[in-house]
Amino acid sequence: MQLDREIVERLLERWPVARLVTLGRDGRPHVVPIVFARHGGHLWSPVDAKPKAARELARVRNVRTRPEVSVLLDHYDADWTMLWWLRVDGRASAVEAGDPTSQGSLELVASALRAKYPQYASVQLFRGKPLLLRIAIEQMRSWCAGPEAARAASEGVLER
Predict the structure, then answer these.
(1) Number of helices and strands (H, E) in the chain?
(2) Which of 26, 73, 136, 138 has a CA between 20 and 30 Å from the CA of residue 86?
């Protein structure tokens, strides 16, 4: 059973964490948890100031060479009648401050991220020069175990 479009829209607006899948140069998948916000029809994920490796992150390197990505939002429960997932497939690009393709939207995206994640009141949003991954949505697929799972997904995002 698929999630209703209304539930999908709310999940994309409010669900707090997702898994980003990029492809390395060798074709191997690279999966990391991300925070994200939706703005202008795209998903945006910052390279924020939480501790990371000193060099360019693998997800950024991967996107620069192979832009095909998937983003997975999901909910696991010991009661398998409550399971659901939403997968967004798209093309990603690394967007830096001053990038002409961002068309001034980085400030709006930063505001959306700060509004969604109160943690950014105490954690710097960006490490130095702002860098975000912009994911253009190409298709979405979803699944839920049944009406109870769909209701729980809907209620879960309403509580956030």
Answers:
(1) 4, 7
(2) 26
In CATH, what number is assigned to the domain containing residue 75? 2.30.110.10
Q: Which domain holds residue 66?
A: 5-159
Residue from 141, 48, 58, 55 nearest 92 by CA:
58
Q: How far apart are CA 108 and CA 130, in angstroms?
A: 13
Instruction: Say how far apart CA 106 and CA 130 lie, in whole Å.
Output: 8
- What are the tokens at 141? 């697929």
- What is the helix, strand, coil percentage profile of the chain, to 5? 30, 35, 35
Question: Which amino acid belongs to residue 122?
Answer: S
- When divided into structural domains, the chain yields a total of 1
Query: Which of these, 24, 93, 6, lies nearest to 32 by C-alpha position?
Result: 24
Give the confidence band of 160 by pLDDT, cuts at 50, 70, 90.
very low
Q: What is the pLDDT of residues 57-73, one digit of tens each?
A: 999 999 999 999 999 99
Q: Model confidence over 138-159: pLDDT tens digits?
A: 999 999 999 999 998 988 765 5
C-alpha dihedral, 29 to 24 to 40 to 125, nearest 10°: 100
Please provide residue 99's backbone torsions phi and psi, each rounded to the nearest 5 degrees. Answer: -65, 125
